[in-house]
Design brief:
Its main location: nucleus. This is Auxin response factor 19 isoform X1. By secondary structure, the protein is α+β, with helices and mostly antiparallel strands. The strands form two sheets. It has a three-stranded antiparallel sheet, covered by helices on one side. 28% of the residues lie in helices and 23% in strands. Helix 1 crosses helix 2.
């Protein structure tokens, strides 16, 4: 279903290679979707043409390849579009990737800094009880 719907989405939005699909989860845990169009080349410059089918397969293949090789890749997400079920909450990601969970989060009054209590379940870091995080 993802590939069928994705193909329709790419066709309707007239997406091309280099465009970005943005994904983000809002504070209500709703998944939202948006599009960032790449700069288009002038018409007089030749470029290879990709069909919408080959484009969506290429995007999914690139993400699968990066994941299979433990390589980083970026998923952009826009909270102002329709929700989806395949983007997970950030806390769940941190718990899976960094092998610890955030158990306590304290913001200092009138400060952009906070104190973050770390639950070090797997003893990945020795003698680590508190870390300081800068909120952006």
């Amino acid at each position: 279903m993802l590939t069928t719907e994705w193909s329709l989405f790419v066709s309707r939005k007239k997406l091309f290679a280099g465009d970005s699909v943005l994904f983000i989860r809002d504070e209500k845990q709703q998944l939202l979707l948006g599009i960032r169009l790449a700069n288009r080349q002038p018409a007089n410059i030749s470029s290879s043409v990709l069909s919408s089918d080959s484009m969506h397969i290429g995007i999914l293949a690139a993400a699968a390849h990066a994941a299979a090789n433990n390589s980083p890749f970026t998923v952009f997400y826009n909270p102002r579009a329709s929700p989806s079920e395949f983007v997970i909450p950030l806390a769940k990601y941190y718990k899976a990737v960094f092998l610890f969970s955030f158990s306590e989060f304290v913001r200092w009054k009138n400060s952009q800094w906070c104190n973050l209590q770390v639950d070090n379940k797997f003893n990945t870091f020795q003698n680590l009880d508190l870390i300081i995080v800068h909120l952006i």
